[in-house]
Amino acid sequence: MEIFDGFSIKEVVTSFMVLFAVIDIIGSVPIIVSLQQKFGQIEAGKAAITAGAIMIVFLFVGNKILKLIGVDVNSFAIAGAFVIFVIALEMILGIEINKTTEAKAASIVPIAFPLVAGAGTLTTALSLRAEFHDINIILGIILNTIFVYLVLKSAKWLERKIGDATLMILQKVFGIILLAISIKLFTANFAQLVQNYINF
Question: How much is the pTM?
Answer without folding.
Answer: 0.74
